């Protein structure tokens, strides 16, 4: 018996793990990894998940990212996966000089900023109730 019901009669709440690598920009790339937000859905109902996080810390910085997965894509075993795709938010290419500490929210117009794009698929389903529970 497969791990997941093929008819998903109860459309259980579940989440997905995901992992992807960004494109290279300014000579470096980042990894994104995490878990989607839980959603009720089946392998055939076209549900989606919200996901967000920060990239790996590389080249002295990280980027924020947010997204909504594509609709559920059925697998042969009755489970499903989702496609993820997007772009990170901008980050400074070099750390801005801060004389007295604090956070810089507005660019002075002279600092180079960059972003990366990413594309991948979700991995295993996590956090759902066991069958017959």
Number of strands: 11
Shape: elongated
- Uncertain regions spanning at least 5 consecutive residues: 1-6
Taken as a percent bin, the fraction of beta residues is 35-45%
| Secondary-structure element series | EEEEEEEEEEE
Portion of residues within helices:
under 10%
What structural class do helix, strand and pairing data support? mainly beta
Mean pLDDT: 81
InterPro entries: YmaF
Pfam families: YmaF
Protein name: YmaF family protein
Structure description:
There is one protein chain. The protein is mainly beta and 133 residues long. It has a domain at 13-89 and 117-126. Helices cover 0% and strands 37% of the residues. The chain has no helices and 11 strands. It has strands at residues 13-21, 31-35, 39-40, 50-54, 64-68, 73-74, 80-81, 83-87, 91-92, 113-114, 117-126. Strands 1, 2, 3, 8 and 11 form a 5-stranded antiparallel β-sheet that branches. Strands 4-5 form a two-stranded antiparallel ribbon. It has a two-stranded antiparallel ribbon with strand order 6-7. A hairpin with a 5-residue loop joins strand 6 (73-74) and strand 7. The radius of gyration is 19 Å and the shape is elongated. This is YmaF family protein. InterPro entries: YmaF.
């Amino acid at each position: 018996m497969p791990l997941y019901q093929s008819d998903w009669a109860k459309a259980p709440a579940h989440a997905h793990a995901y992992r992807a690598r960004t494109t290279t920009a300014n000579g470096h790339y980042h990894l994104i990894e995490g878990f989607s937000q839980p959603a009720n859905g089946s392998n055939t109902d076209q549900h989606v998940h919200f996901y967000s996080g920060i990239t790996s810390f590389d080249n002295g910085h990280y980027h924020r990212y947010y997204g909504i997965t594509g609709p559920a894509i059925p697998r042969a075993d009755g489970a499903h996966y989702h496609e993820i795709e997007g772009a990170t938010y901008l980050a400074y290419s070099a750390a801005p000089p801060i004389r007295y500490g604090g956070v810089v929210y507005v660019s002075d117009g002279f600092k180079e900023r960059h972003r990366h794009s990413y594309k991948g698929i979700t991995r295993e389903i996590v956090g759902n109730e066991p069958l017959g529970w």
